[in-house]
TrEMBL record:
InterPro entries: GD_AH_C, UxaA_altronate/galactarate_dh. GO terms for biological process: D-galacturonate catabolic process. Keywords: Hydrolase. This is Altronate dehydratase. Residues 66-300 form the D-galactarate/Altronate dehydratase C-terminal domain. Pfam families: GD_AH_C. The keyword RNA-binding does not apply. GO terms for molecular function: hydrolase activity. The lineage of its organism: Bacteria, Pseudomonadati, Pseudomonadota, Gammaproteobacteria, Enterobacterales.
């Protein structure tokens, strides 16, 4: 962990607290105290090499599937994301839950319009109320910021891909959560702890920020659907990239390209959702057992961004 030395958050204090929480060997270096930028980079490389040596001595251990925390993500969505790729993620999510694990659905702005259906799946009125508070709160925030344009918070790529409103996008986004009952609503990056089943996490639709929240909450892996072909992943944990259509899959390199899986086969090859879902589960298990995802293989680590809900001055 590297800091300049005059920020609001001192890297040394943050590192000390993290070490106390998880016992991991976190090192803090300060540019203004440790010889300047080049010296800090050299020291960081030296410390990282020590950590790699220690990490190489770690041995894999078998763990049951009920220890799995699964993250769901979508980015660069198109009109087929909610038809092919997101339902496949939902199929995997339901499988994780059936096996005693935990699955996390997030991206508040992309759930607007689905609050009633989500509330109906809640295990209690308390959870249903949390869902309404979360989604209505997001809608109020968007209206305050964007006024009448709040229903069109879509990226250019979404529009080029055939989506027209955030509600339309939401109907596809929500399918990543499958059909399992919703057990609870958690804060952004809030540790899952011993909670099992499907959870909803407070978080934005911004891909790198959302992924940081999922992995901070405890997810060990995520499946990320894309209709437009974004190769981005995350530097912390493996991200499996799932294309919604064959055209995009081929456009970004096909079998040897950026995508791990092609849900477009549901349309182009006529395979069933269940067959594609089982294919995704098999791939997920291989990744959990050490196989590199395409982003890992090609070095598309992505960025580490953290959510802030306050103005930046």
């Amino acid at each position: 962990m590297i800091g300049v030395g005059c920020e609001d958050f001192d890297a040394r204090e943050v590192a000390a607290e993290l070490r106390q929480c998880n016992g991991k060997p976190i090192v803090a270096l300060i540019v203004q105290n440790d010889g300047g930028g080049q010296a800090v980079i050299a020291k960081a490389i030296e410390e990282a090499r020590k950590m790699l040596t220690d990490a190489a001595m770690q041995e894999r251990q078998e763990v049951p599937l009920n220890k799995l925390v699964f993250g769901t993500e979508c980015g660069g969505s198109d009109s087929l994301s909610g038809v092919t790729a997101n339902p496949v993620i939902g199929y995997v999510s339901d499988w994780v839950v059936r096996n005693g694990g935990t699955s996390i659905l997030s991206e508040n702005a992309e759930l607007i319009g689905t609050e009633d259906s989500l509330a109906e799946r809640s295990v209690s009125k308390l959870v249903a109320d949390k869902i309404y508070d979360l989604i209505y709160g997001e809608e109020i925030k968007l209206r305050k910021l964007l006024g009448e344009e709040s229903s069109r918070t879509l990226a250019k790529g979404n529009i080029d891909g055939g989506l027209t409103t955030i509600q339309e996008k939401a109907l596809g986004c929500v399918r990543k959560g499958g059909s399992a009952p919703i057990q609870d609503v958690i804060g952004y990056g809030e540790p899952v702890g011993d909670r099992k089943g499907l959870l909803i996490m407070d978080g934005p639709g911004n891909d790198p920020i959302s992924l940081t929240g999922l992995f901070s909450a405890g997810a060990q892996v995520a499946i990320y659907s894309t209709g437009r072909g974004t190769p981005m992943a995350h530097p912390i944990c493996p991200v499996i990239k799932l294309s919604s259509n064959t055209r995009t899959y081929e456009m970004v390199g096909g079998e040897n390209g950026d995508m791990d899986l092609n849900a477009g086969e549901i349309i182009t090859k006529g395979i069933s959702l269940e067959e594609m879902g089982e294919k995704a589960i098999d791939y997920l298990l291989e990744v959990l057992n050490g196989m590199e995802t395409k982003p890992e293989k090609y070095g598309y680590g992505g960025t580490f961004n953290v959510y802030t809900d306050s103005p930046v001055f």
